Amino acid sequence: MNVRFIHCFAVLLLFGSGPGFGSEAAKKTPGDWERELVSVEVHRKQYDYFQPWTKRVRTVVKTGLVIGPREILTTADELDDRTLVRLQKGGRGTWWNAEVKWADYPANIAVITSADEKFWAGLKPAALADPIRKDEDIQIIRWRAGNLEVRKAEFSRFNVSHPNMSDAVHVQLELSSEIDGIGWAEPAIAGNKVIGLVFSQSGNQLQALPSPFVRSILDAQKKGRYKGLGYFDFTWQPAENPETLEYLKLEGDKRGVVVIDVAAKPGSESAVKPRDILLQVDGFDIDTQGDYVDPHYGHLLLENLSTRGKWAGDSVRLKIWREGRAQDVDYRLPKAENAARLVPEAPFDQEPEYVIAGGLVFQPLTKNYLRSWGQDWERRAPFRLAYFRNQDPTPERSAIVILSQVLPDMYNLGYQESRQLVVEKVNGQKVNYLSDLQRALKKPLSGFHLFEFMKGDTLQRMVLDAGALDAATKRVLGRYGIDKEQVILLSAK
């Protein structure tokens, strides 16, 4: 994951469509910029996934970009669990109450508005570039301590990867710059248009949402056609080994990639099957490395075609090679938010789930829990937990519940050092969800609760007195100042 240098008071920018950004940006007066860039202050609840019963208030200040009448564009980062949103013009002075008009967390895009007419006085919309020209001078602009800061940036490349909050994959703009402390929707400017919104920073490398991608979603949203981002739910491998293509009897030039797995939901049949050779997506030829040539971005990974002007539920035309001949099939894009993952994203705008039983803290394993290990969580999180992050669910294991920690009490004496254990069974019943755990705890075995953990964990089982559980739970809640012994979503299985 890219590192973002977090400032609780980093300032958000709005971009103008005035006569010149880029090399002419420094010539603009502060008054020109004040009409197009605003600050967005967000107050929100921030949950601690290591102690899911706790929360604190967090305040961040982001950049906003005026894009139309009563519309401010920013990223969706830090807008979940919000309690108050305010806007400020000119980098200082009055704050105006605002509300989120709509937000799409997987796409990392949000539009904010304000009902106060006085706020909009003097503001004008910025222009979003489409397409992006890579040969223009690029600058990053933001409010900083009440002043406008303009810093040079250089184009690095276009890439395709997962954003911070979704299984969807889309094109991203990578820039390099000496600027620091950004990643809060600061606009990247070329010529007189905005080419991207910076959403993360790692050293001198910046990742930005490209303006054509943003525009496509804004346009679809206004027309009522935007249904969320889709994704390809099949896994493929490069077909660089000519023997593989020969074995699958591909005729003609070596091309395409080989489908090796399909994560279709039970009871549904995918248009794609293992051992298919994927030759084209919506008319774009796929090479043996899995790339296609995009008319705007050049060589990109084929996954981008799931979000290139296509949304969840849309049909994508695929040309595949199956059983010795080419075939055209229609593939319907599943919604990224509904992706079946063994380790899912935690729901947005929802407090973390947990169950405390006799001091034992049980939680679902989610990516938000893993991200608690910091920006480099994929390497720092316990390997036995991070291993599951790219796994698909199976009928036997559709989700994972872990014993995340033990709050010491005389009831659990001897087990207080146990943590991050994958729960297999409780009282002989399989546990995939916290609701399974709830039901199992109502059926002790001969007066005892038997907790069994995944083979290979440091501890294989716990045996505790069932009759003393409720009293121990009450004691632990009081000692540690915890209000609720459990939080379980109504939609959880």
Observed structural traits:
mainly beta, Pdz3 Domain, 28 strands, Thrombin, subunit H, disordered N terminus, N-terminal domain of MutM-like DNA repair proteins, 12% helix, 493 residues, flat, 8-stranded antiparallel sheet, 6-stranded antiparallel barrel
Give average pLDDT, whole number: 88
Query: Which secondary-structure class do the elements indicate?
Result: mainly beta
Number of helical segments with 4 or more residues: 9
Uncertain stretches = 1-31
How big a fraction of the residues is strand? 35-45%
Note down, in words, how this protein is organized.
The chain has 493 residues and is mainly beta. The protein has 3 domains: 22-222, Beta Barrel (Thrombin, subunit H); 234-337, Pdz3 Domain (Roll); 354-487, N-terminal domain of MutM-like DNA repair proteins (Alpha-Beta Barrel). The protein has 9 helices and 28 strands. It has helices at 30-34, 117-120, 211-222, 242-247, 367-370, 377-380, 383-386, 434-441, 469-480, and strands spanning 37-47, 55-68, 71-74, 82-89, 95-104, 109-113, 138-144, 147-161, 170-177, 186-190, 193-202, 205-210, 234-238, 257-262, 277-281, 284-285, 291-294, 298-301, 315-322, 325-332, 354-357, 360-364, 401-406, 421-426, 429-430, 448-453, 461-465, 486-487. The strands form 5 sheets. Strands 21, 22, 23, 24, 25, 26, 27 and 28 form an 8-stranded antiparallel beta sheet that branches. Strands 1-2-3-6-5-4 form a 6-stranded antiparallel β-barrel. Residues 1-31 have low confidence and may be disordered.
List the helices and strands and how they pair.
Elements: H1 30-34, E1 37-47, E2 55-68, E3 71-74, E4 82-89, E5 95-104, E6 109-113, H2 117-120, E7 138-144, E8 147-161, E9 170-177, E10 186-190, E11 193-202, E12 205-210, H3 211-222, E13 234-238, H4 242-247, E14 257-262, E15 277-281, E16 284-285, E17 291-294, E18 298-301, E19 315-322, E20 325-332, E21 354-357, E22 360-364, H5 367-370, H6 377-380, H7 383-386, E23 401-406, E24 421-426, E25 429-430, H8 434-441, E26 448-453, E27 461-465, H9 469-480, E28 486-487
Antiparallel strand pairs: 1-2, 1-4, 2-3, 3-6, 4-5, 5-6, 7-8, 7-10, 8-9, 9-12, 10-11, 11-12, 13-14, 14-15, 15-16, 15-19, 17-18, 19-20, 21-22, 21-28, 22-23, 23-24, 24-25, 24-26, 26-27
